[in-house]
Design a protein that fits this description.
The protein is mainly alpha-helical. It has one domain. It is built from 7 helices and no strands. The longest helix has 19 residues. The radius of gyration is 20 Å and the shape is elongated. Pfam families: Haem_bd.
């Protein structure tokens, strides 16, 4: 048997073995309501909340609901799981209310910047998720809201719902 054929066959067998469910990463979904979502502490107008939910929550929360069919193919699921894990480390709306005020202010500042730059959601994500595309107006509205929330926190103004 040709050496190249043996290599290709071996790689194919490894690929098939990796497709076994035992190698799938755990999905990003928590059943319990933690009561530390951004909406549990901060004033989030409904239009802002809907934009965040549609464009951001799949990666920046504990509730990824829409896993595409290709998520079940290795190593794609590992790659996507890494993206979600990194996104949640940068900003997790499901745990935002647990951030101390200085951290929350910094997160709002960063949110403002990425909305101004229109750098989120990632272009690679938008290729397959048309519903997450924001208009220029939505980006600006989110940026303005994030800047307002940052200023409220920095100035010690009660920006909480509670």
């Amino acid at each position: 048997m040709n050496t190249w054929l043996k290599i290709v066959l071996s790689l194919f067998i490894v690929f098939l073995i990796l497709q076994l469910p035992v190698f799938n990463p755990e999905k990003n979904y928590v059943d319990a309501d933690t009561h530390v979502d951004i909406t549990d502490k901060y004033e989030v107008p409904m239009d802002i909340q809907m934009d965040l939910y549609v464009a951001c929550y799949n990666c920046h929360s504990n509730y990824t609901e829409d896993y595409p069919w290709y998520y079940n193919i290795q190593p794609i699921s590992w790659w996507m799981n890494g993206h979600i894990r990194n996104a949640k480390q940068a900003l997790n709306f499901s745990e935002f209310a647990s951030y101390p005020p200085d951290t929350a202010a910094k997160k709002f500042e960063n949110l403002y910047k990425v909305m101004e730059e229109q750098s989120m959601p990632l272009k690679s994500y938008l290729l397959l998720h048309d519903e997450a595309k924001l208009t220029d107006e939505q980006y600006q509205h989110l940026a303005d809201w994030a800047k307002e929330m940052q200023k409220k926190i920095e100035n010690g103004i009660d920006s909480t719902q509670n």
